[in-house]
Design brief:
Pathway: Metabolic intermediate biosynthesis; chorismate biosynthesis; chorismate from D-erythrose 4-phosphate and phosphoenolpyruvate: step 4/7. By secondary structure, the chain is of the alpha/beta class. It has nine helices and twelve strands. Strand 11, helix 8 and strand 12 form a beta-alpha-beta unit. Bound molecules: NADPH dihydro-nicotinamide-adenine-dinucleotide phosphate (NDP).
């Protein structure tokens, strides 16, 4: 029987998830249908209940419902607990399970680029939901230090304080975004500055070997500045593919190779 999946959000029509999941299904020979689901802003819980009542197997959750999904779950994975947001739902024994696959998606994307996380010194710009979602997987992948830099310092400090109990092997700290300096293996832009067309300034006293921009499909002054320094760069399309593959593997028990789907970008 065809397994039913969907991504639920508002708005939802521009989601690339159906295209990605159908490509994974074709590559792995799994019979599934994956659709877009528009939930009313005040009707998320009823919408997902209807999906599972009708025999749906798994749901991805996107803006603005990831925190609501987290609140509704009966069982959360550790990385969803740290993220305080859920992007992958399924039902088991009458219970609603939730995971957050964004962080593992990023780790898999970095691995596909050949960028090493073992003992890496990582700087993340931004302290919003995306940063919270990637902290535990980056630490578990071996990062020795993660510095979170944010325009609003208190938000970065709070994030570090919240995440610290879950992470023992990685040194965490918070700094102000306008006080960037030092030497890092990897810098990740997890601000939404690129989405709003605003420019981030990377000062000369900040040094890094690789630069990853979580946003994709938009011009990025962050990536422009990194490219001018001659370091390897990447936008966030590979993370999008990575988080989708991780959700697909949770539901279907098979994990397609991320590298095989990067050509879907254009
Ligand atoms: P949030 O709204 O939760 O957080 C936004 C962050 O950006 C905050 O730290 C905010 O700082 C900072 N910020 C916003 N504008 C500026 C600016 N002009 N200058 C400096 N800092 C700024 O967003 P998310 O964490 O959910 O998303 C962040 C980015 O990650 C987005 O570009 C999103 O598209 C991308 N993303 C990509 C994914 C992928 O699969 N590739 C998955 C998830 C997210 P402050 O706290 O001071 O307001």
């Amino acid at each position: 029987m065809t397994r039913q999946f969907a991504v639920v959000g508002n708005p939802i029509e521009h989601s690339r998830s159906p295209e990605l999941h159908h490509a994974f299904a074709k590559a792995t020979g799994i019979d599934l249908n994956y659709s877009n689901r528009l939930a009313p802003l005040d009707g998320f819980a009823a919408n997902i209940q209807e999906f599972f009542n009708q025999g749906g197997t798994g749901l991805n959750v996107t803006v603005p419902f990831k925190e609501q999904a987290y609140q509704l779950c009966d069982v959360l994975t550790p990385r969803a607990q740290v993220a305080r947001a859920v992007n992958t739902l399924w039902q088991q024994d009458g219970k609603l399970y939730g995971d957050n696959t964004d962080g593992q998606g990023l780790v898999d994307a970095l691995n596909a680029l050949g960028w090493k996380l073992e003992q890496a010194n990582v700087l993340i710009l931004g302290a919003g939901g995306a940063t919270r979602g990637v902290m535990l997987p980056l630490a578990q992948a071996g990062a020795s230090q993660i510095v979170v830099a944010n325009r609003t310092l208190s938000r970065a400090q709070q994030l570090v304080e919240d995440v610290q109990p879950f992470i023992t092997t990685t040194t965490l700290s918070a700094i102000r975004l306008d006080q960037l300096s030092g030497q890092f293996d990897l810098i990740i832009n997890a601000t939404s500055a690129s989405l709003s067309g605003e420019a981030l300034q990377l000062p000369p006293e900040l040094h890094f070997q690789q630069a990853y921009e979580m946003a994709y499909g938009k011009p990025s002054s962050f990536l422009d500045q990194a490219a001018q320094r001659g370091v390897p760069i990447s936008d966030g399309f590979s993370m999008l593919v990575g988080q989708a593959i991780e959700a697909f593997s949770i539901w279907n028990g098979v994990k397609p190779a991320l590298e095989d789907f990067l050509s879907l970008k254009s």
